[in-house]
Amino acid sequence: MSAPFEERSGLVPCATPWGRWYQTLEEVFIEVQVPPGTRAKDVCCSLQSRRIALSVRGREVLQGKLFDSTITDEGTWTLEDKKLIRIVLMKTNRDAGNCWTSLLEKEYAADPWVQDQMQRKLTLERFQREARIIFLTFTYLHQNPGFDFSGAEISGNYSKGGPDFSSLEK
């Protein structure tokens, strides 16, 4: 158990020698601790669809092929309080089944317990998003009783009533 689930934030961080990384359905967050007093001009960060490179004051901190693809134009980095670099990558594949098992293809893997917690969090996030859509749909239907779904088709994997969320922790 290298990283506990953070109840208040809902994060499941994966600790690394330089900081930590975590993910949501849509994004991957990377937090890198840097020497206090670091300035933006000391940072060189390259974000590509499948690659990342970060160096601070000429020293390589993080470099390699990402676990999965990201949207290049949506990636950002910021320097906070002159001691923390926060990188945000937008996943190309944004479904609950796309839980990254590591940050890079061959480095910074989550241990099995953390990986399980990450997957649970993403599944719960998807469930909450879908429940909100269902709630809004029913609210709309209640306010507009003449709306007709008789010709609608349901697509997706709903065998045996859909995914089983009964094992999720409350």
Automatic annotation (TrEMBL):
Gene3D superfamilies the UniProt entry points to: 2.60.40.790, Single helix bin
Keyword annotations from UniProtKB, A to Z: Acetylation, Centromere, Chromosome, Cytoplasm, Cytoskeleton, Kinetochore, Phosphoprotein
Cell compartments where the protein resides: Chromosome, Centromere, Kinetochore; Cytoplasm, Cytoskeleton, Microtubule organizing center, Centrosome; Cytoplasm, Cytoskeleton, Spindle pole
Domain CS: start-end pairs: 14-104
Pfam family, one: CS
Subunit structure: Interacts with LIS1.
Organism: Centropus unirufus
Gene Ontology cellular-component terms listed: centrosome; cytoplasm; kinetochore; spindle pole
UniProt GO molecular function: unfolded protein binding
Superkingdom of the source species: Eukaryota
Keyword Phosphoprotein listed: yes
Role noted for this protein: May regulate the LIS1/dynein pathway by stabilizing LIS1 with Hsp90 chaperone.
Main location: nucleus
PANTHER family to which the protein is assigned, alphabetical: NUCLEAR MOVEMENT PROTEIN NUDC (PTHR12356), NUDC DOMAIN-CONTAINING PROTEIN 2 (PTHR12356:SF18)
Any single GO BP term: protein folding
Name of the protein this chain belongs to: NudC domain-containing protein 2
Keyword Secreted: no
